[in-house]
Model the fold of this input.
Amino acid sequence: MPPRHRQGQPWKDIRLRAPGANRSRQRARHTRTPPSAPPPGRLSFEPMASLDEPLRGVVGGKAAARAEKAFGLRTSGDLLRHYPRRYVRRGDLTDLASLRDGEDVTVFAQVAKVTSRRMKARRGRLLEVTVTDGSARLALTFFNKVEYWERQLSPGRHGMFAGRVSTFAGKRQLAHPEFKLLSADDADKAAEYAAELIPVYPATRDFSSWDIEKCVRVVLDTLGEVDDPLPEAVRERHGLDGLGTALLGIHRPADLAEADRARTRLKWDEALMLQAVLAQRRRAAAALPATARPNRAGGLLDAFDARLPFSLTGGQRDAGGIIAADLARTHPMHRLLQGEVGSGKTVIAVRAMLQVIDAGGQAALLAPTEVLAQQHYRSITDLLGPFGQAGRLDGADQATRVALLTGSQGAAARREALLDAASGAAGIVVGTHALLTEHVQFADLGMVVIDEQHRFGVEQRDALREKARGTRPHVLVMTATPIPRTVAMTVYGDLDTSTLTELPAGRSPIATHVVPAAERPRFLERAWERIREEVAAGRQAYVVCPRIGGDDAGGPGSGADGPAHADADDLESFLGEDEEDAGPRRPPLAVLDLAPALAEGPLAGLRLRVLHGRLPAEEKDAAMRAFAGGLADVLVATTVVEVGVDVPNATAMVVMDADRFGVSQLHQLRGRVGRGSEPGLCLLVTETAEGTKARDRLDAVAATLDGFRLARLDLEQRREGDVLGAAQAGRKRSLRLLTLLSDEALIGQAREEATALVEADPELASQPALAAAIGSLLDEEQAEFLEKT
Ligand code: ADP
Ligand code: MG
Done:
């Protein structure tokens, strides 16, 4: 059998298809697993490799070293899980115009022109080969062995060229690329080959796509029977191929349908493993001991309910009922409560905390920022009235105390709060998330509420165990950032979730408009007029900037407002910043620049206050107090106002450089207005041009108030790799094929299967291959990934 491709590089003895390979491949396509016996034509004493086989023994030391250096691949299994990025047919050409400087690429192109000349500065000759995709061109330059390359690269030939893209003298080029020519003369050889797809792998300069292809072939050809982590029954129920067939199918598909089939099956591996880990974790968490805190009639909770100035919404009652039942169990609650901004999560949390206090325990409420901790402290104290004033003159009989712990409070106040927490005098302790890691003692911590945080990692769980001295407190995590269902099922897969879908009655709608400041400067003037009108009507407004100013640089997410942004906007930063537009832009507008400009210009005469993360805590609190108390008309702020800040009289918001914020973040921001009975107004100011992606995003925010839709849009607009990749950069990836948005159905099915498997057999003793695969997944530091996200 002739080799499929003629070799372009004689020093590389690439035989793309070993004589035995074709046969073993064809057999494999008709069986569920590859043959365990050596294929005919192969010497029978040749050892069959397993997936654990070190690569060195299979592909040789040199290739193995390159595989390890390039991608950390050590075993046959590692290599076979290094999947092709895409496939090309022979004759397909890469769009050369799309190449970017600095990218490592493998392109398919045709040689158009070959020229050589003597170099001026150095001895020797330079060969320049121009390749084309039919329209765009790319230069390949070679400095040595010019005659030799020239003989190979004759015009008209097709090849794969790999290297790093750079620009020289205005021309896109690959300097000294690796290449492999595709032979033209055996093209007629066979329809069999014509249809065949060439896999294109993620590659590096030292480990090219065709090196990988070659190694993969060697591994596949020597692979013995493989243990399939997918249980037979699962495969049968969902019509999935065996692992061996799927590995062949993804690396050497006869057609795209076969590759697709293989991908689906391999996605199942990822989904089932992840879901099995999460199911095990849910089970283990549910088995931990916790003190039951059942509801007690006639206690603080009843007194609180009697004082409540409004009636709970149906959703609040439902979620509250579920949480009350969770708290009555002897295993710790671990629940995520999500609900739109203003849906009334805090009341649910306070009621749960009071149930715990009635049962003899204490509760801690943790907020992402000091501003929010202070606000919670104030609103809880208000809501409790005399019932929060134990030991004070105006305290009620069965009253408790609310303690506030912040990093910046005075020593005396802090000492008193610490004492109240340790003695149990304080039923509720409010602080920032940092409280978990500080040396705060509780008499009997029964419950922890975590506001506006999505991640709740293993370190925090460990810290909790210490705080609660042995048993685990019940945990309620609250978030207003809607989490798409697939993300909830994977990243937060070990939390139970409750969702508030309705807003309390009497809320006014928020109108959102995009203000194109560049095209229509007049619109921006009008925006400031609107603010003046709101203030004249006795209401207040926010002006939000992406940046603080002073010495800082960069936009949102680049530490502009460090703690507030990083903590409060977890999902956003977890998903990674999107960097769609390249090219220089002016720095984002800053609070410290804009506030004085407004005070002297369009908002002259109004009472302005400034709020950002770099202010000392007392000043932040003072600014918030002044604004909440109506002593300021306009709050010029960074995203510190993003979460939880509740000033019902604030009815308008102007977001400057709105394109610098994420979609979900803008949605959060505008949730600050329209919390009272007056309609809210949110103006998104941008200089981006109509029709750009950034502008489209703003239009989308203006067009809907549905946070879940916007969260999905956010996810769609980021490249899928970033979704999970950000959290595990530089590591082997446990999820290579699975994508959260498009694989929702598959993930849901895998979750059901995994839950059933783990329920029937918690240790997965009857599924050794699955258990082993999970074991190695967790070994590879993936545990860290799963825990931390
Ligand atoms: P979020 O879910 O954003 O944390 P909050 O708990 O801060 O929302 O509630 C927003 C405002 O709505 C608060 O002022 C709160 O007192 C009020 N609120 C909560 N529940 C109701 C209700 N059922 N009816 C009327 N107002 C309510
Ligand atoms: Mg809140």
Observations:
- The chain has 28 helices and 21 strands.
- Residues 310, 312-313, 316, 339, 341-347, 480, 504, 644, 646 surround adenosine-5'-diphosphate (ligand 1) (CB under 6 Å).
- The longest strand covers residues 104-118.
- The chain has a mean pLDDT of 79.
